[in-house]
Amino acid sequence: TGIRNLGLALPTDITRLNILLTHLHLDHIQGLVFFEPLFRSQAEIVIWGPASPQASLRDRIARYISAPLSPVEVRELPCDVSFRACPEELEIGSARITAAPVAHRGPTLGYRVEDVGAALAYIPDHEPALGADLEMLEPEWISGFGLAQGADLLIHDGQYADDEYAEHLGWGHSALSHSLTFAQRTEARRTVLFHHDPLHSDRWLDAHAERAAAAWQARGGAAGTVELAREGARYEVDPATGEFALAEEAVAGGVAEDTSVPAPITSVAGR
Length: 271
Description:
Blueprint: H1 2-9, E1 16-20, H2 26-29, E2 44-49, H3 57-62, E3 80-85, E4 89-92, E5 95-101, E6 109-115, E7 118-123, H4 145-148, E8 153-157, H5 162-165, H6 176-186, E9 191-194, H7 202-218, E10 226-228, E11 233-238, E12 243-246, E13 251-252, E14 255-256, E15 266-269
Parallel strand pairs: 1-2, 2-3, 7-8, 8-9, 9-10
Antiparallel strand pairs: 4-5, 5-6, 6-7, 11-12, 11-15, 13-14
């Protein structure tokens, strides 16, 4: 749903857009029909996503963007929109993108985006510990390892506390210790824990953020390099160092609080 506010915040003179979908579960596509650039007649939008033997990407998304779930259908969108199964590697502008299947329910991709000397890994729905000991596995057997290895910013599933995981085994999401082990094994430079459980209150999440930071430092991790994703947070990369930093400004309520041009790699991470 965060894509709605992003669409409202994008300058109207941006006419070419690429959207990378990890998978088609409803919580990852329900904001599409409210993405304002889809209703700009001058916009050219390419939507990338996982291939499936069942149907094309367009047909699968059209099941949602159609009656009775949507007041408009794909064929009625004013923009020039196309749907493409994402290959293992592609280039969009100056960015090199790597896509690979990851452990989740149904066809699901994780992404690695490399540009201006920095790498961002985006694996929001991920259960790499399912039936495996992440501490002991060889790297080539760890789901998503190649995507996240040495990433300057890793945005990764961290839905559950450790004591919640047993009740959700096989649901496709990670417990805190799994997320931290994954970040440690891949040597990610900075990690943002994503895909918060909707049953967790903001107060619970604040306490969980403290637990995550303490657990990370207990593993020898640097302070301030593990945090929880926040609605509207924006991370900008320093091309000189490849380091991502949390920008002071945020995208909230559909309006960007600043009008500066974002860095080449900008990630909007939400709840």
